[in-house]
Amino acid sequence: MEIKIFITYNCNLNCRYCFVTHDRNANMDYTTLREILRWAISLNEPSKVILTGGEPTSRFDLIIKAAEYVRDNDTDKKIKFDYIPTNGTLLTKEMIKAIKALNIEFAFSLDGYGLNDNKFRYTNNSLYKKLMDNLRLYMAETKTVPRIKLTVNPDNSNSFYDNVKSLLINGLNKIQILPAFGVLWSDTDKKQFLSNFDRILRLHCYLKSRNKKMSLDPIDWYIQMIQQSNFSEIAHNNCDMGKQVSFTPFGEAYACLAVIHLKRNEKLRKRFYLGTIHEGVDIKKISLFQNYRICQETPELDCRYYFPNISCKKICATLDFKTGKRISKAYTNNLNEIENYMFHKTYDFYFKSGKDK
Predict the structure, then answer these.
(1) Do the strands 106-109 and 47-52 form a parallel or antiparallel pair, or are they unpaired?
(2) C-alpha to C-alpha distance for 18 and 41, rounded to whole angstroms
(3) Which of 24, 83, 155, 184 is 20 to 30 A from 229 via CA?
(4) What is the rounded distance in angstroms from the CA atom of residue 160 to the CA atom of residue 49?
(5) How many other C-beta atoms can be found within 10 angstroms of the C-beta atom of residue 357?
(6) CA 79 to CA 44: how far, in whole Å?
């Protein structure tokens, strides 16, 4: 089970492609957080907990309390905290020391190693400098290289190879590439993304052949799953629907991360509603969505991918989060094709052409 907990919707930034509607007043109280963690422990199965936002470090008190509660109450060690996403600007040395003591790790949102690379996230040089200072401080204090989340949107689709390369050159060698959803991917944007991804695959192969230490997802993760013939995991990971529950700051539970933020699509939100942590969560209902495909209700989409069948799982691929309406067919198909291309190209490159030998 994967459990995502939005401890806040507050954020000190306003990235144009963020699907979360920021609200400084939407903050989880500790009672709600404690009940969610108690519920997670009671499931008595291995569960991955992700504390997210907004900017989670704006509620750093809850991060610490969550870690301490699990440490003191999860006697069977069933709960594991995943990387906490952060824009990195609010961290302090004391905060980094605190999370290190509790074995919590952060994943930094960063498009490249330069202000211009991050122009869609950091609006001024002083803010970007603060992030860089905190990033270096994090590495010095934890003695680890942090995970970098690189969100690729249509505006930077033509430069994300250079962004990846700049991160690697500067020793940030744990990178996750994430194509942005809820935005319009034109044919040109798609072609730029695919061209850059091809270059990244060749760079990945070159560095691996020279035994360079790096983790570049989804490429490395795809390779691992293909080697294990674990295609069902790839299909689930495309959305995690059917094995994930997400909580709002007020304790409402949903079987889909995306629909939480659909302010203008109550019908769809209601379909994936599971209850509240205070009145009860319908855990059995989650499994009903394991085989859900957006193609079932949007037959006009081009659902041509079958190996594995991952193209039509993401509701967020079809929705404009600003309006709650469906994105037109062409844009939706482009995003689906981007996600599928990354898998198929990795498979062809490493398992058909012999590059992994």
Answers:
(1) unpaired
(2) 31
(3) 83
(4) 29
(5) 6
(6) 9
DSSP labels, 247-295: E-TT-EEES-TGGGG-TT-HHHHHHTEEEETTTEE-HHHHGGGTT--GG
Phi, psi (rounded to 5 degrees) for 341: -60, -40
Among 260, 237, 233, 181, which Cα is nearest to 5's? Answer: 260
Q: 121, 93 in Cβ contact below 8 A? A: no
Find out whether the peptide bond into 56 is cis, omega within 30 degrees of 0. Answer: no
| Rounded CA separation 31/48 (Å) | 20
* Residue pair 235/310 in contact by the 8 Å Cβ criterion: yes
Q: Report which of 239, 13, 10, 258 is spatially closest to residue 124, judged by C-alpha positions.
A: 13
pLDDT tens for each residue of 124-137 = 889 999 999 999 99
DSSP state of 315: G
Do you know the residue count of the chain? 357
Tokens matching residue 57: 């470090």
Q: What's the average model confidence in pLDDT over 324-333?
A: 84
Structure tokens at 354: 């012999």
**Cis amide prior to 154 (ω within 30 degrees):** no
**Nearest partner of 204 among 350, 343, 348, judged by Cα:** 350
H-run or E-run covering 207: helix 187-209
The Cα–Cα gap between 74 and 324 comes to: 39
Q: Can you tell me the distance from the alpha carbon of 260 to that of 237, in angstroms, rounded to the nearest whole number?
A: 19
b/e per residue 336-352 (b: at least 16 CB within 10 A):
bbbbbbbbebbeebbee
Mean pLDDT of the 315-335 span: 81
Euclidean distance between CA atoms 34 and 27, whole angstroms: 14
With contact defined as beta carbons under 8 Å apart, do 49 and 5 qualify?
A: yes
Contact assessment for residue 117 and residue 153, using Cβ atoms and an 8 Å cutoff:
no
Q: Is 151 helix (H, G, I), strand (E, B) or coil?
A: strand
User: Per DSSP, what are the bridge partners of residue 245?
Assistant: 3
For 274-296, write each residue's pLDDT tens digit. 999 999 999 999 888 877 777 77
Tell me what percent of the chain is helix, strand and coil, each rounded to the nearest 5. Answer: 45, 15, 40
pTM for the whole structure: 0.91
Closest CA to 335 of 302, 299, 309: 302
What's the rounded Cα separation, in Å, for the pair 266 and 244? 20
